[in-house]
Amino acid sequence: MITNTDYYFTIIQGGQAEYRDRGSKFLAFAYPVAVVEEVKPLLDDLKKEHPKASHYCFAYKIGLDGKQFRANDDGEPSGTAGKPIFGIIESKQLTNILIVVVRYFGGTLLGVPGLIQAYKSAAALVLQTIPVIQKAVEFKISLHFDYTIINEVMIIVKQYNCNIIRQDLQLFCHLEIGVPRNRLNEVVFKLKDIRGVIIDE
User: Fold this and answer.
1) What are the residues facing 141 on neighbouring strands?
2) Which of 157, 167, 172, 199 could be bridged to 162 by S-S, CB 3.0 to 4.6 A?
3) Which residues, 6+ apart, have CB-to-CB distance to 198 below 8 Å?
4) Is residue 32 left, alpha or beta, with left meaning phi > 0 and alpha meaning psi from -120 to 50?
5) C-alpha to C-alpha distances, 20 to 26, 27, 61, 118, nearest whole angstrom
């Protein structure tokens, strides 16, 4: 049975788009991010690339519990930039994503409704340039086993589309895998069936 919690939507590649309004230019950039620590270096790079821009507004959402997110107006009137960008992320039900909109001021004030529309449009445009993908929610488990049974273990790993996170394949092997949550019980059951596999959940 597939429930909403077995899958999530994200991006696996970056994208770029441009939106203009009354002389102001809004450059939108989307990035896949897995941890909050990835955000600042990406922002710093954009500031170096666009030193003459007037604002670098952004929003991100990371993880599956909905608790790791942020929206930043970077000097624009409160709620006119970060929040509309975040609204687009939410409307597409995305996570593990950062969207930055770099604004070059064109000399004409857009007003609060104009700014909200511009940041929202730029964020929506950049998402049209990249594919949104559905990924299985994974549960990590560690396996320890003797090299002589590696083939039996790998057959199960491939059969259930498990993601190999880390591997140390020597005489005694250590494998860390991400198992699709909706197949976890089956995978653990099959692995326990192989004599000599030790599982840390």
Assistant:
1) 177
2) 157
3) 143, 144, 145
4) beta
5) 6, 9, 26, 8
**Helical axes 150-159 vs 184-192, angle rounded to 10°:** 170
Give 201's pLDDT tier (boundaries 50, 70, 90).
Answer: confident
Give pLDDT, residue 4: 57
2 vs 84: which has the higher pLDDT: 84
What CATH number was assigned to the domain covering residues 137-200? 3.30.70.260
In sequence order, what are the residues at sequence separation of 6 or more whose Cβ sits closer than 8 angstroms to the Cβ of residue 24?
A: 103, 104, 105, 106, 108, 110, 118
Model confidence over 126-148: pLDDT tens digits? 999 999 999 999 999 999 999 99
Per domain, the residue ranges of the chain are 4-134, 137-200
CATH class of 4-134: alpha beta
Which amino acid, residue 94? L
